[in-house]
Amino acid sequence: MNKIGSKQANELRDLAKMNPSDIGLSDLPEVRDWNGAAVGKFYRPIKKPLTLRIDAEVIEDYSCPHAFLGSSRVRGYHHFPQAL
What we know:
The chain has a domain at 50-84. Helices cover 27% and strands 0% of the residues. It has helices spanning 6-17, 56-62, 80-83. The two termini are 28 Å apart.
């Protein structure tokens, strides 16, 4: 999680102490109908490149019979983490 500055920490602390009725929401109306909401529309998980060295016998033991080893399309790779 990202660390916040002392100014933001103070503002959050002050907001936490406030009574909910004291917080003005006139410029931000409450949304009651969420039918048109899209879950995860703006969330994109961070992807990081990863290289693993796996023994050939492990690949043979845990890959599907239809795996195309040696090509970029390897089926059955989802079994490897459970095996390691």
